């Protein structure tokens, strides 16, 4: 008791700091992870999943439908949540995503929107997050370029 | 004794306080603000807008090609510099985005990598970063296959068509260079921390 009285100020600072650290550690509404490390699956393309792969997934899947279009949750017997992209960080949706045990799949007609949401959620520490795409790698150029051997640039 | 305990407790407190900062670099923006920023329409440029920047040689714009070097060597936008996406997120972005007065436009073959890079850069505080809608695929569809059919053309349509034609010509000229010349040319223009200007010109 005497010790507590002597060091009450230091102990108070320590307790407050510990509380702040714990809050920061377990809080999912701030960015605290190493950005490059969290973004790595996007460079390796391990964050992409096709409809075929999705149907073969085992375990509970949370399908986040980010637009009007997208596959139906009923078809796969999994939980589907329709959510407007700009509402994704609303606690009722974010809590559901954070507490999801199985994979979370982002489904949207526009890959650009899925990519942006994926990066934001991933940087918040949400793992097991995938983007549903039509192709295994949408970043492959399918267009052919025909060179014009007669033209030369003005260098 | 009292001093020792005080120092010990304060040291513990400091260690605790610094624990969450052990990450190399994390996003600095607040999640809500970042989400609202990146879902705004103003964070992208259409291929027509990018074509105009290229034709007018706009010096306030920097175009970054996020594709692999071999893809860049094969085909690239005039004036762009190559910075593969994996390299971009694996190194300090300040090496490439340190000039905060010019706008940086990311593009890849499609929409994914450019939009990852857009959020990544904006999350780290680089506000003047943008993505080109549809990437190289959209460029090939819109600019390179631009055709006009009809009897009348409005002034606006004519301006867009002219920009597309001129940008398409520049693109064709550059990408028609013989492989040996092109490789040499690209190597000299490879994006590096030391050399921030120039590129696939």
Describe the structure.
The complex is a heterodimer of chains A (155) and B (201). Helix content of chain A is 42%, strand content 13%. By secondary structure, chain A is α/β, with parallel strands linked by helices. Chain A has two domains: 1-29; 31-132, Oxidized Rhodanese, domain 1, CATH 3.40.250. Chain A has a five-stranded parallel sheet with strand order 1-5-4-2-3. In chain A, strand 2 (62-65), helix 5 (73-76) and strand 3 (79-82) form a beta-alpha-beta unit. Mean pLDDT of chain A is 84; it is low at 69-73. By secondary structure, chain B is of the alpha/beta class. Chain B has one domain (31-193): 3-Layer(aba) Sandwich (Oxidized Rhodanese, domain 1). Chain B is 51% helix and 9% strand. Chain B contains ten helices and five strands. Chain B has helices spanning 2-18, 31-38, 47-55, 69-74, 85-90, 94-97, 112-123, 135-144, 155-175, 179-188; strands at 44-45, 61-65, 80-82, 103-107, 129-132. In chain B, strands 1-5-4-2-3 form a five-stranded parallel sheet. In chain B, helix 4 links the parallel strand 2 (61-65) and strand 3 (80-82). Residues 192-198 of chain B have low confidence and may be disordered. The chains are: A alpha/beta (155), B alpha/beta (201). At the A-B interface, helix 2, helix 3 and helix 7 of A face helix 1, helix 2, helix 5, helix 7 and helix 8 of B.
Main attributes of the structure:
heterodimer, A: 155 residues, alpha/beta, Oxidized Rhodanese, domain 1, 2 domains, five-stranded parallel sheet, 7 helices, 13% strand, B: 201 residues, 10 helices, 5 strands, elongated
Instruction: State the end-to-end distance of chain B.
Output: 71 Å
- Give the rounded overall mean pLDDT of chain B: 86
Mean pLDDT of chain A: 84
Number of E strands of chain B: 5
- The CATH superfamily of chain B is known as Rhodanese-like domain
Based on secondary structure, the structural category of chain A is: alpha/beta
- Let me know the number of strands of chain A: 5
Please tell me the CATH architecture of the largest domain in chain A by its name: 3-Layer(aba) Sandwich
- Largest sheet composition of chain B: 5 strands, parallel
Largest sheet of chain A: 5 strands, parallel
Q: How many domains would you count in the coordinates of chain B? A: 1
Question: What percent of residues of chain A adopt helix (DSSP H or I)?
Answer: 40-55%
Our estimate of the beta-strand percent of chain A is 5-15%
Helix content of chain B: 40-55%
Largest interface: A-B, 57 and 64 residues
- CATH C-level class of chain B is Alpha Beta
Compute the number of helices of chain A: 7
**Shape type of chain A:** elongated
